[in-house]
What we know:
Shape: globular
Amino acid sequence: MTADQKQLVKATVPILKEHGVLLTTHFYKRMFELNPELKHVFNMGNQQNNKQQTALAMAVLAYAEHIENPGVLMPVVNGIGHKHTSLSIRPEHYVIVGNHLIASIAEVLGDAASVELLEAWTLAYGQLASLMSGHEQSLYSKQTAKVGGWSGWRPFVVKQKIKESEEITSFYLYPSDRGPVADFLPGQYISLRLFLPELDLLQPRQYSISCAPNGKYYRISVKRETGTKHPDGMISNHLHNHVEIGDLVDLSTPVGAFVLQLENQNPKVFISGGVGQTPLMAMLEQLVKDKVESPIPITWIHGCRNESVHAFKDRLAEIAMDNKIDRHIFYDHIEETAAFEYKGWVELAQIKNVVLQPEAEYFICGPAPFISKHYHFLLEHGVEKSAIYFEEFGPASLQLN
C-alpha cells in the first residue's frame, strides 16, 4: 500500500467510530443472502444479539487505526485466529468475506466511497487477510503435529452424561475412531457442531474443556438455558434434551489463548461466576494432578445463584480435602440447609486480605460485567495488568484498559 492509500483508510476512522455497526450489519445481511451456505459456519446466535456485528466493527476500526503498523494487533489477531481455527475457517472464506466487505463499504457510504477509497480498502483487506490466514495456518500446523491432533471436524461419541447441578450437565466425549486425543492447555475450548432442526442448519458452539488433559477424552460442562429460543440456548438445550450416551457429535481441536501459566510457581487466584468456572476447573485439576512437596497456593472464588445450581461443588470439596485450596463461595439466594460462606454476588472487597497476594496470578471468567468489575478492582488495588487473565464467552466485547 502507498502512503496515500494508508491515509485514505485512516480517514475512514471517524466514520467507522460512528457507523461501524451499521456497516457490519449490512455486510452480514448481504453475505448471508448471497452466500447462505455460510450460515452453517457462523454462530447465528451472535447475529441475533449483535455481538458479532459489534466485534467485527471494533476489529475493522482497530485495523484502520493501525494500518501503518498492523503488527501491534497480533494479540487480537491471535485470539481471532484461535476462534477461526475452531470453526475451520479457511483462506477461501477470506475471499468471500472480502468481496462482501468492499461491496458493503460502497453501498453504505454511497457517493462518499470513491474509486480510490475502495481500492485502498481492497488492498488493506488483502493485507489483513494475508496476516490472519498466515497465522491461522501456523495454528493448524501445530494442531496436526500433535499426537492425536487433527484439523477441521472429527466425530466424537458421548460416553458419559453426568448432571453436575440443576442447570449444568457434563458430557464426556471420546473419539469415535478410538484413537488418542490431542493434549491441550488447561483453559482452552473446543467447538462442537450439531444439526439444529429448528433452524435447518448445522451450528457450531464453543465450550471450554472442564477437565485436565488426559489423552483419552474431553469433558464439556453445559448450562441449560431454560425458556429460551435463542440459537445459543437452542444448542445447549439440544445437548441436554436430545444428545444421549452413544450419540455422535463433531468436534474441532482444542484452541484458545486463555490458558494456565504452567511455567511458574506463582500463587493462583481463580474468580468465576456461574458456568464461567468450567475452564478454571480444568486449570485446578491440572494444578493438583501431580503431588508435589511444595504445592502452589490456590484461592478459589466462585459465585452463583444458590447451592442447587452450584456445579462441581462436591468435586471441589474432594480436591480441597487433599490439597491446599482456600475456597470462598458466594450464593445470591441462601437456603436454610446450604453450606455457604457469603451472601450476595461476588465482592472481592469482602475478602480483600485473601485476594491480594504478592506475585499472584489472577484468572477471571464469567459474563462481561462480572469480568470488568473484578478486573478493575484488582487494578485499583495495585495488581499489574500482566498478572490478570480473563475470558468472556462469545465474541469479545470487553475493551479493558
